Amino acid sequence: MKLNEIVLVDPELMSGTPCLTGTRVPVRTLLDYLEEGDSLTAFLDDFPTVKREQAVAFIERGGELIIGVALSAA
């Protein structure tokens, strides 16, 4: 999945808050759910406009970014 299919930053949508593309759901909300120990399924149930593959792609991209940073710092 391309980045623009996962996250959108648009100054005219939610004042430029990064949102999951095609929704008004900030990516921070997904992270907050996961930090609180809620399941991805619970998040998706509460935000039905978000596609599962989109949320999974966001999580995977974040993991890849962290691994890349850790490897370059080693």
Describe how the helices and strands are arranged:
Layout: H1 3-6, E1 7-8, E2 19-20, H2 27-35, H3 40-46, H4 52-73
Antiparallel strand pairs: 1-2
Provide an overview of this structure:
This protein has one domain (3-73): Arc Repressor Mutant, subunit A (Orthogonal Bundle). It is mainly alpha-helical and 74 residues long. It has a two-stranded antiparallel ribbon with strand order 1-2. The protein has helices at 3-6, 27-35, 40-46, 52-73; strands at residues 7-8, 19-20. The chain is 57% helix and 5% strand. It contains four helices and two strands.
Q: In a nutshell, what does this entry contain?
A:
The protein has helices at 3-6, 27-35, 40-46, 52-73, and strands at residues 7-8, 19-20. It has 74 residues and is mainly alpha-helical.
How many domains is the backbone divided into? 1
The chain-level structural class is mainly alpha
Q: What's the arrangement of strands in the largest beta sheet?
A: 1-2
Order of helices and strands: HEEHHH
Gyration radius from CA atoms, angstroms: 13 Å
The biggest sheet amounts to:
2 strands, antiparallel
Corresponding CATH architecture:
Orthogonal Bundle
CATH domain class name = Mainly Alpha
CATH homologous superfamily annotation: Winged helix-like DNA-binding domain superfamily/Winged helix DNA-binding domain
**CATH overall fold name:** Arc Repressor Mutant, subunit A
Taking all residues together, what is the mean pLDDT? 96
Distance between the termini: 29 Å
Helicity level: 55-70%
User: Strand portion, in percent?
Assistant: 5-15%
Instruction: Compute the number of strand runs.
Output: 2
Uncertain runs with pLDDT below 50, 5 residues or more? none
* Total helical segments: 4
